[in-house]
Every structure is written in C-alpha cells, then in structure tokens.
Amino acid sequence: MEPSALIPPPRGESVPGLGVVTWNNPGERVTYAAGILAVHTPHATKLTAVLLRPLLTSRTTCTRCGDPWPCNRATWANQALHTQDGTQ
User: Fold this and answer.
1) Structurally, how many domains does the chain consist of?
2) Cα separations (Å) of 54 from 24, 57, 59, 68?
C-alpha cells in the first residue's frame, strides 16, 4: 500500500484563492464571504470588436481579479452567504 493512501484528505472547504480552509466558526466564513463580495464586483461591460467576424461582443469582468464575471471567488462567496455550513 502506498504511504499516500494512508493520509486522510484534508478537512475543511476548498475556497478559491485560499485552498482548503477549516473555519473556526460559521461567522468567520460569512465575514470572509461578505468581504470577497465587497471587492469582487462586476466591472462595466467592455465591448470588443472581433476583426475576424463582423461582430461586437460584450464581456463583463471582475473589478478585482479581471476574470470573466462572475469570477470563481464571487461565485463561492455568493454560495457561502446562502448556505449554512457549505452544503446545499
């Protein structure tokens, strides 16, 4: 048997940008999620001209990380604020 098979998986919750986190109490999770939503917000929609096709495309990005909206962190935070313990 491989030694890695004996190591249990980490306890906690996978949080984008942090990794696996074990919260000491539910309030910490809610506070962190609220903070994430305060800074990860949708940026004004950008119109991009695509030269290969005669189209204009619109793309909304996150003001904090620049990822397409909703970004992974905002999606996690929104879900965290609407669940009690990280489960649906």
Assistant:
1) 1
2) 54, 10, 16, 22
Q: What is the pLDDT of residue 83?
A: 87
d(CA 33, CA 84): 12
Q: What is the DSSP letter of 11?
A: P
Angle at 76 between CA 71 and CA 82, to 5 degrees: 130
Say if residue 69's pLDDT is above 50: yes
Structural domain span for residue 54: 20-81
Report DSSP state, residue 45: P
What pTM does this model have? 0.72
Cis status, amide bond into 8, omega within 30 of 0: no
Give the closest residue to 77 by CA, choosing from 26, 28, 18, 36. 36
